[in-house]
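In response to reviewer comment 3 from the previous cycle, which asked for concrete evidence that the modeling workflow produces usable outputs, we include below a single protein chain processed end to end. The sequence was submitted unchanged, and the resulting structure tokens are shown without manual editing.
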Amino acid sequence: MPYAEYTVTIDRPAREVFDYLADGTHNREWRAGVLDIRHTNSTTGEGAAYRQVLAGPGGRRVDGDYRITVFNPPHRLEFLVTAGPAWPAGAFELTEGTGRATVVRFALDLQPTGFMKLMTPMITRQMRREVAQLEALKKVLEQADPR
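The workflow returned the following structure tokens.
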């Protein structure tokens, strides 16, 4: 079963980090491979849905739509991918660190079925690359003007 997680400490308050992550339209700013993203319903928080297009193998555009399934500010944000070649569940767990720092853990979990089970090593590598993009999130948020 493919699983990946990554943890980083960001020098920003937990609520600021949570709010940024909860607004999926920011994904292009810190996630390589996100070509397009838009909020597709009027819901914010739990139930919010996003249409996301990703750069796939060979330059193909692939769907990566998702829906927020758990919204517990400023501590936990979970989502489920609802379109695309793989449908992992993801979770951001935020813990207040020292000062105004926030420890962010990003985990992805996938239950492959059928042919996808044969692709587990490749999927796991991609998931590891995805969660490691927290380093880019850290850079974007720490370079932003404080509010």
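The radius of gyration is 15 Å. We consider this sufficient to address the reviewer's concern, and the full set will be provided in the supplementary archive.
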